[in-house]
Amino acid sequence: MEKKRIIQLSLVLLIFVLSYTVFYLYFYENDEVNLTDNQNLQRKQIIESTEVDNIIENLEYKSIDTQGNQYLLKSKSANESQENKNILFLTDVEAVINLLGREPIYINSNYAEYNKINYDTKFYDEVEVKYNDNNLNANNLDLSIKSNKAYIYNNILFANKNSSLEADVIDFNLLSGDTNINMFEEKDKIKIINK
């Protein structure tokens, strides 16, 4: 009798585990995109609600690494974070990355979050990237100067004279040019149109 009960409990537990797994794999929606949109809205509200005394106008940062690569960041205005004095919230942002032996990379966005210590910059809201004849638009771009990587995500539209592409995520190595393009959901497909 006890053996029969153990088998029944095991089957019931197995059914619950399988049901949860099926639900998670097929019916659970990833809220990552909405979360980042909410984070962007919160950042905008921080910038807009900061007192006038903390505003820095016409800000410009320039850094050069040991290999001679340059990073120039300009902003019409900036507010210092109240939680971390090394973080600046920027508006009307322009950036130029000059890598030795390569064409410059131009980045524009409505807003950005800049770390004064490691120069990492999180661009958001109408991000536009221009490199050679390539144009890229997205909601977000996280730039890590130390690791020479750009992580571009949310509503990516890429175009050049040969093709256009729609994707969710692009990992880009600034030095090697290695690129990894993905979607948030495995079932979704990257859209490529050759001209």
CATH classification, class level of the largest domain:
Mainly Beta
Distance between the termini: 71 Å
| Mean pLDDT value | 81
The tally of structural domains comes to 2
Counting helices, strands and paired strands, the structural category is alpha+beta
Query: How much strand content do the residues show?
Result: over 45%
Instruction: Please name the fourth-level CATH homologous superfamily of the largest domain.
Output: Lipopolysaccharide (LPS) transport protein A like domain
CATH topology of the largest domain: lipopolysaccharide transport protein A fold
Q: Helical percent range?
A: 10-25%
Number of strands: 10
Low-confidence stretches: 29-35, 49-53
Q: What's the gyration radius in Å? A: 22 Å
CATH architecture of the largest domain: Sandwich
Number of contiguous helices: 2
Overview of this protein structure:
- By secondary structure, this protein is of the alpha+beta class.
- The chain is built from 2 helices and 10 strands; from the N terminus they run ααββββββββββ.
- Strands 1, 2, 3, 4, 5, 6, 7, 8, 9 and 10 form a 10-stranded antiparallel sheet that branches.
- It starts with a helix and ends with a strand.
Provide a short characterization of the protein structure.
This protein is α+β, with helices and mostly antiparallel strands and 195 residues long. It has helices at residues 2-26, 32-49, and strands at residues 55-64, 70-80, 87-98, 105-115, 121-131, 134-144, 149-159, 163-173, 179-182, 191-194. The protein starts with a helix and ends with a strand.
